[in-house]
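HOLO CASE FILE
Compound: magnesium ion
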Amino acid sequence: MKQTFADLFKQIDSKLHSIRCLSLTTEDGFSVFSQTAGSFKVEDDKLSAVTSSLTALGSAAAKQLIGAKFESTCIETNEGLMFMIKTKYQDKPCVLSLISGNDPNLGQIRFYLNKLAAYLETAKLSAANDSQPQK
Amino acid sequence: MHKKVAFIGSVGSGKTTIIDNLSSINTVNTDVESSVDIGKEMTTVGIDYGHIVVDQETTLGLYGVPGQRKFSFIWDFVKDGLWAVVILVRNRDRESIHELDHLLDYFDIQQHMPCVIGITHVDSESGESTIKKIKSTLQPRGLNLPVYTIDARDKECANLIMRTLIAIEESQ
Ligand SMILES: Nc1nc2c(ncn2[C@@H]2O[C@H](COP(=O)(O)OP(=O)(O)OP(=O)(O)O)[C@@H](O)[C@H]2O)c(=O)[nH]1
Ligand SMILES: [Mg+2]
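Model generated. Tokens follow.
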């Protein structure tokens, strides 16, 4: 059986523990896959649009202010963080984003999300379970 | 004084193009490839920012928003504290005129604020019918705004829009 996005969610959740959301969005803000944990709810369309804008603004800052190549954006809150990283899926530029649990380890999140982003560049996931809440 | 000008209008109406054209600094650009067919390759997903120095006292900040409604949370940032608004409408495009209606409400456009409408893409077809449709959108709202046919790629056109905004303010 082919791998689904839900499988990837489970895998990364087993490493990082109690993540709340993992989502893949096209660079221009359309949701490709999205998976949330338990009772956590997020509107896919809103998440995709915000992810797309923040990444584009992050890229602009990296290029025009720092003169460097953009890699990722991170938003820290008092209840965990949201980490966004550029990737490709099926040759389309995309953004992979993760919303952590309450007690995140940024180093670990960066490490595993980087790995997953690299994996997605050549992966072909089965469409089943996309945008479904995780049981 | 730094004054804030918003450029709003439907996808492909020319907001990014006109800001690029007007700005005296390299603009902040957040265009990415569109994954769906929107009649052009790139689309704005963040914000365009450009800057004009009018005279010693006045600088204008040019803020271009994404045309796609799903990014309307960006419109909300731009909406506050505006000095002027430029609304671009794509010629002979029903969606674009429909969007004008929505944007007049969203940005709460009032007669007393400097606001100009520019009809773009008039090089291939006359803008007459679009002007009529725009007027009939404005009239029930009691709005009487200047409407120009322009080419967003043309520097003279872009400057005309800015001069008009300044003239409107000076006449008040
Ligand atoms: N022929 C013609 N082309 C124009 C005119 N004005 C703008 N364009 C072109 O039309 C396109 C307009 O694109 P943008 O400036 O990206 O439009 P936008 O309003 O920023 O669109 P979004 O960011 O996607 O909402 C560009 O390819 C311009 O070169 C015009 O008056 N005539
Ligand atoms: Mg644009």
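CASE NOTES: Residues B 15-16, 44, 48, 64 surround magnesium ion (ligand 2) (CB under 6 Å). The two ends of chain B are 18 Å apart (CA to CA).
CLOSED: yes
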